[in-house]
Specification:
Layout (H helix, E strand, L loop, with lengths): L29 E4 L5 H12 L3 H4 L10 H6 L3 E6 L2 E10 L4 E8 L8 H15 L4 E7 L3 H9 L3 E8 L2 E9 L5
């Protein structure tokens, strides 16, 4: 995003935080903006979530090399915690016409418990609050379970490409405004 367009882009801030109700009784989460004190834990969650792809990718997937301190300082990193422990991460960046879901990571020990779904639902609510009509995301081509996961949650593949040394698959989901 260019310096000039930054002021035109909707800003996500803590006042826009909402709690998602999906699976809350079975697996209650608190989703909040990340803080600098969270960065080491965020890096561990990301490493644990993505290290399985290093060999297939031939290098570390992009989320493993991101600057989480900068993302936290820019209010782009959200953490999901349960009982005070960070177990998930969501990186969102509001653009002029969409919300970019830059990264979603869930600690391996809680996969399959609805954390990812709650994070996706939270991202959709953020898009609605910002009045953005769609969410866009991309995933690594080698992350084959994601290629099935996102369509099950209403995302459709828009294209594939090679960017920043990674083969990527791009997805989009239209977000209906709340009445």
């Amino acid at each position: 995003m260019s310096e000039n367009s930054h002021n035109l882009v909707p800003k996500i801030d803590e006042s826009m935080s909402v709690r998602n109700e999906f699976d809350e009784e079975a697996f209650p989460l608190n989703i909040r903006l990340g803080e600098l004190r969270d960065v080491p834990v965020i890096q561990n969650v990301v490493r644990d979530a993505y290290e399985q792809y290093v060999a297939a990718e031939g290098s570390k997937p992009a989320p493993m090399t991101a600057d989480y301190s900068s993302l936290v300082e820019a209010n782009h990193a959200w953490v999901a915690e349960q009982a005070g422990h960070v177990i998930g991460l969501l990186v969102l960046e509001a653009e002029n016409d969409h919300l970019l879901l830059e990264n979603i990571a869930v600690a391996p020990e809680v996969r399959g418990k609805g954390v990812g779904h709650q994070l996706l639902s939270f991202a959709e609510e953020q898009a609605r609050l910002l009045r953005l009509p769609e969410i866009r995301l991309y995933t690594g081509e080698v992350m084959t379970q994601n290629l099935h996961y996102y369509p099950r949650h209403g995302y459709h593949e828009t294209h594939r490409g090679y960017e920043d040394g990674h083969h990527r698959v791009y997805f989009c989901k239209t977000i209906e405004p709340k009445e």
